[in-house]
């Protein structure tokens, strides 16, 4: 149901002081949500497009004022001014809003609600009219007597509301304020679903709103002003805009897991997954669900992605693989400055690899860092909840809030660095960047560097009955565990539900990668699965005893370093061979098989000659740092200290991770 409403400023035009400078387009009422009973508005101010969900509005009684009932909407800004509301005080707040918020626009000052003022300066109204075209002024307590000769004023009574921009209307002697959301185009095609929270923020609805674009969604984000000075120890993530990988259940929204048949089969979830609930309880704002490669299996753009289009990696020429499986979360964080964090999962590299190719901070935490109830499983012995950041300080703050008291900080950092010769050196263009960082890290820590290979350590310490090299011993551990675990615990129930709902239609479609992995692992059988679980358990114990040991002062006796990304190309327009089995053992398998924390740190960018653009472009260079079990907060503290020391920095969004030097 869509119907057009008149211009909000047409309402103000009937009042003595029309905001002549405000240029609002026509409002459009839309009906959103699964049941079609949730009204919303869409409008634009200049080049900005806005979305207003009316089902989360604030309601006030009007105890003084000349307003009647009319079905029109107009912009208003809520300001908190203690004491006397002078023009300079209100102007200072509006200028602060313009500096801190991407949603706010001076047009919203066409109406002003002085929520906490004790009195209103006599010249305030004429001054605001002159500066912002203010035509309507509301007050919650200050007297408006004697002011009606110079402005349309009214006294409101009701609950206090957060400062910031709103859309207001008058109905039956009541005033209604609704929060506004700025719409951003998802140009990287990283999201599956734009979301807006209910009034209690516990459930979500689909924001059914569109912007012109090439197969792009519109993602609504609320004003940051609503959350200024609202952060508390209990709600440390207040106001942060978060993207959520589409394997996490969000109440009121379908979970798709990258598969069309799965999305169609099941109704919207009735409860939030535990990791999402923790974000909501800590004040975070879920703005949308992001794409995952199918059932969180590793897929390469473009051929492996069948049911949906792989997100576009914003770095370099824009046509590099975003890696997987947390592809949408990684691509969105690399592209959009309006997004604060995005969460994903990491079983075999699904946070670390996208962090590498998008040049982001990322973490695969210690196994068990957070309860994964309500999250699609891949392998229970390796699944973890991770996330992305563009700055070391926010990386640490977010992680310590989300993981809570699961881990602790330590008084010192490790003094030994393991830089295994079997994983170094990297590419010729990236290696100088790695060398510079490792040298600075060594100096910062006062550390000793060892280049001993993992195979040397294994050969010297593994039990004689193992009688195999590390690579041979762990060769099929990962593919057997993920394939068999997911097929038996996730795929079989899905297939059974599908066949029950669609009799005679056979099995639902699945992409080639999960199909090949499931089929191969099932052929190996349950006995092979048990054998590989035992190997994983042995490797976990071996790692803790011989490679990365617990330390009471530094948490981990050693930090293991290996190159995560080295500005190598993986073009999304290349034709590739059929997917194979992810067998073998490499540096990236250490943390997921042993349940250890691993962070990705962006270091720089290196040039390459693009076959897409035909010019020299740049791709990220990142390093992985692995520590002993439960040393997650030590790693957070280290990244903060390194950034504060100028050894690492925050990264940009868009084509380049860092400014190009002149």
Distance between the termini: 54 Å
Tally of individual domains: 2
Number of strands: 29
As a percent range, the share of helical residues equals 25-40%
* Largest sheet, spatial ordering of strands: 16-15-19-18-20-22-21-28-29-27-23-24
What CATH architecture of the largest domain do you see?
Answer: Alpha-Beta Complex
How would you briefly describe this protein structure?
With 662 residues, the protein is an alpha+beta fold.
Tell me what you see in this structure:
The structure is a single chain. By secondary structure, the protein is an alpha+beta fold. It folds into two domains: 3-179, no CATH class; 183-429 and 549-644, Amidase signature (AS) domain (Amidase signature (AS) enzymes, Alpha-Beta Complex). It is 27% helix and 24% strand. It has 15 helices and 29 strands. It has a twelve-stranded mixed sheet, with helices on both faces. β25 and β26 form a beta hairpin. α2 packs parallel to α3 (124-132), α8 (392-403) runs antiparallel to α15 (632-644) and α12 (477-501) runs antiparallel to α13. Mean pLDDT is 91; it is low at 1-37. Residues 1-20 form the signal peptide. Residues 232-403 form the Amidase domain. Keywords: Signal. Residues 71-181 form the Scytalone dehydratase-like protein Arp1 N-terminal domain. This is Amidase signature enzyme.
């Amino acid at each position: 149901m869509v119907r057009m409403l008149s211009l909000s400023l047409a309402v103000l035009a009937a009042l003595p002081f029309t905001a002549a400078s405000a240029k609002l387009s026509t409002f459009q009422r839309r009906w959103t949500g699964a049941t079609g009973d949730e009204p919303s508005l869409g409008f634009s101010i200049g080049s900005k497009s806005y979305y207003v969900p009316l089902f989360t509005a604030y309601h006030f009684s009007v105890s003084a004022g000349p307003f009647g009932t009319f079905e029109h909407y107009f912009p208003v800004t809520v300001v908190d001014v203690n004491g006397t509301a002078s023009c300079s005080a209100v102007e200072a707040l509006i200028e602060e809003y313009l500096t801190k918020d991407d949603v706010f626009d001076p047009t919203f000052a066409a109406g002003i609600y002085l929520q906490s003022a004790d009195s209103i300066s006599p010249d305030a109204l004429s001054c605001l009219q002159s500066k912002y075209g203010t035509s309507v002024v509301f007050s919650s307590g200050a007297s408006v007597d004697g002011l009606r000769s110079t402005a349309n004023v009214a006294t409101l009574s009701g609950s206090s509301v957060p400062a910031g921009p709103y859309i207001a209307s008058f109905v039956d002697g009541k005033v209604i304020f609704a929060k506004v959301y700025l719409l951003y185009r998802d140009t990287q095609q990283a999201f599956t679903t734009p979301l807006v929270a209910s009034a209690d923020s516990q459930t979500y609805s689909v924001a059914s709103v569109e912007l012109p674009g090439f197969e792009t969604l519109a993602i609504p984000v609320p004003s940051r002003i609503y959350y200024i000075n609202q952060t508390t120890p209990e709600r440390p993530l207040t106001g942060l805009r978060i993207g959520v990988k589409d394997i996490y259940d969000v109440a009121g929204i379908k979970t798709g897991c990258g598969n069309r048949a799965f999305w169609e089969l099941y109704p919207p979830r009735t409860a939030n997954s535990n990791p999402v609930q923790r974000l909501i309880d800590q004040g975070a704002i879920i703005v949308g669900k992001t794409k995952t490669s199918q059932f969180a299996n590793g897929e390469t753009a473009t051929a492996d992605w069948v049911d949906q289009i792989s997100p576009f990696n914003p770095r370099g020429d824009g046509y590099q693989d975003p890696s997987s499986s947390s592809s949408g979360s990684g691509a969105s964080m690399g592209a959009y400055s309006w997004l604060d964090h995005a969460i994903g999962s990491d079983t075999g590299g699904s946070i670390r690899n996208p962090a590498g190719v998008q040049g982001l901070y990322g973490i695969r935490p210690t196994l068990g860092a957070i309860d994964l109830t309500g999250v699609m499983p891949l392998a229970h012995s390796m699944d973890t909840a991770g996330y992305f950041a563009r700055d070391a300080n926010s990386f640490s703050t977010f992680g310590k809030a989300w993981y809570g008291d699961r881990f602790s900080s330590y008084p010192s950092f490790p003094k030994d660095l393991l830089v295994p010769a079997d994983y170094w050196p990297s590419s010729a263009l990236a290696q100088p960047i790695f060398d510079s960082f490792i040298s600075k890290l060594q100096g910062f820590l006062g550390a000793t560097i060892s280049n001993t290979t993992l195979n040397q350590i294994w050969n010297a310490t593994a039990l004689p009955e193992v009688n195999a090299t590390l690579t041979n011993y762990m060769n099929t551990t990962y593919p057997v565990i993920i394939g068999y675990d997911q097929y038996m615990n996730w795929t079989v129930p899905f297939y059974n539900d599908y066949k029950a709902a669609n009799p005679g239609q056979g099995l639902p479609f699945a992409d080639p990668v999960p199909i090949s992995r499931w089929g191969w692992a099932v052929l190996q059988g349950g006995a092979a699965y048990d054998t590989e679980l035992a190997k994983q358990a042995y490797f976990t114990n071996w790692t803790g005893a011989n490679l990365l040991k617990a330390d009471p002062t530094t948490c981990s006796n050693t930090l293991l370093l290996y190159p995560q990304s080295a500005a190598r190309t993986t073009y999304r327009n290349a034709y590739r061979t059929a997917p194979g089995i992810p067998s073998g053992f490499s540096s990236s398998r250490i943390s997921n098989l042993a349940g250890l924390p691993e962070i990705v740190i962006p270091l720089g960018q290196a040039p390459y000659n693009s076959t897409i653009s035909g010019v020299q472009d740049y791709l990220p260079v990142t390093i992985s740092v692995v520590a002993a079990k439960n040393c997650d907060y030590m790693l957070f503290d280290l990244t903060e200290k390194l950034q504060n020391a100028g050894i690492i920095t925050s990264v940009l969004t868009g084509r380049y991770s860092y400014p190009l030097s002149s």
